[in-house]
Amino acid sequence: MEQIIANGLYLGAQYALIALGLTLIFSLMNVLNFAHGQMYVLGGFVCYTVVAQLGMPFIVGLVASALVLAVLGGLIERFLFRPVIRRSKRDESTMLLAAGIAFFLDAVILLLFGEKQRGVPKVVNGVFNWDFRIIMPYDRILIGMLAIGLIVAFILFMQYSKAGRAMRALAQDRVAAQLMGVDVDRYSMIGFAMGAMLAGLVGALLVTITGVNLGMGGPTSIKAFLMIMIGGAGVISGAIAGGFILGMMESVGLSVLSSYGDVTYLVIFATLMIFLAIRPQGLMGKPWG
Amino acid sequence: MTRMLSFDNVELYYDHVYALKGVSIELNEGETVALIGANGAGKSSILRAITGLRKIKSGQITYMGERLDGTSAPEVVRKGIAMVPEGRRVFPLMSVKDNLLMGAFTRSDKPGIEQTLESILTRFPRLRERFNQQASTLSGGEQQMMVIGRALMAKPRLLLLDEPSLGIAPKLVQDIARAIVAISRDEGVSVLLVEQNSRMALSISNRAYALSLGQVVLSGNSRELLNDPRVKAAYLGGDV
Predict the structure, then answer these.
(1) What is the DSSP string of A45-96?
(2) What are the tens digits of pLDDT across the range B154-173?
């Protein structure tokens, strides 16, 4: 039991970070970023390149992933989403664009990094063993703690910094935020860069544990959308709740249902369908996003 | 009296439907000017044109001797124009404190912001009581006080008010009217007030323009307009 909860928390922290980035982009720009999973994979490969190929310390890889993805996210907003949003009023346009970016990033990853599974050496060795009730390698504990630290840092930033306040204002009432002097273009770009950065950071964190490969992008995007549907799209607390709930469900599913075969996600999807039929706005979803 | 703001033959369209058809108005420093008229007469469009939320098609808007049309919304705030939008538009999930701080978004002088905040909390003591509460939990009247305070946080020279009495309990409309008078007196801020409650608007303004179908149809001293038979017939019909 303790083991299942520990695994769920560890997974949930990573998932919550991914969902936070996705929900940030959605709430600021009303864009469903289908390329979120690819950004996560790219972050993993950047970290792999820096750590495994250039031989730098893990922390350098982590920072490099964050920077590369933040710049990439900023550029994607500035040169792809912004002109499309300006010219088209229909939501489908940005959805198609996001899907196109997902395919494009998949191709870029294939060209630059190949199709092989890549990983980096363990950051720390050893296994934590609490009386055989919780057994967890130290590197997983470290990565889990880092993820939780990043979630806390993100919340503090959104809550107490001027930029964070501006982004919350923009998400809650776009027109009123403009009337306060918030530059929508500027903060959309910052928000997209931050969202992409969070995806990249998770990729970099997980490359030390599970490694990355080209095929992980799509499924990760789908999981990220599951999380914000559970929690409620566009709400920070919802993204965090959705991340931890999915992490916990996966952890429970993998240990309880494993004897019935690979049915965990089947059960999760079925549960989610029933849940959304009863509460379409998600757990924390508010009518005003 | 120095001229603060003037509209010179301004036209504004929403897609292909006109909202303003050659409107010319002016506002002097220290004045409170009311815009009255029915729904869809173009009152709010005038405010939207000033804030840069809507681009005008022709004509010219001048503010403090400089051309204002074509200026972006954030730049308009920096020039000292703050707007209280129609329907209040609070940031519902943010605290009263954060809502007020958003009003000072374009300012960076911390001690000055603190000072303005303190003066607003003194003016609206209810906001001090509710300081850390979520804005969505406030009553309509309290929200209106808060968004007026939010606009004042920018330390504006010109305050634009769009239907401040809309959806407010009749008892509180007077409080809001009094607050507007007190603000223009104490802060030396000029006010452009859009109201459907014409009686209230005329009783607290120096001058007024009546609009109909995107054009100015009447203008003059507010007190005289209050007694003008045409205004009485068209705008003060029911006792509001």
Answers:
(1) HHHHIIIIIS---HHHHHHHHHHHHHHHHHHHIIIIIHHHHHH---HHHHHH
(2) 999 999 999 999 888 888 89
- Summarised one tens digit per residue, pLDDT across range B6-15 is 999 999 999 8
Instruction: Identify the CA nearest to A221 among candidates A19, A44, A16.
Output: A19
Supply A93's token pair.
């346009």
The domain that holds B109 is classified in CATH as: 3.40.50.300
Total domains in the fold of chain B: 1
Strand pairing category for B190-195 and B32-37: parallel
Instruction: Measure the CA–CA gap between B11 and B193, rounded to whole angstroms.
Output: 20
3 state SS of B105? coil
A165: containing domain: 2-278
Q: Are residues B91 and A173, on separate chains, in Cβ contact within 8 Å? A: yes
Structural domain for B177, as ranges: 3-235
Q: Which residues of B touch A178 (CB under 8 A)?
A: 53, 73-74
- Whether residues A180 and B98 touch (CB distance < 8 A) is answered with no
ipTM value for the complex: 0.91
The total of structural domains in chain A comes to 1
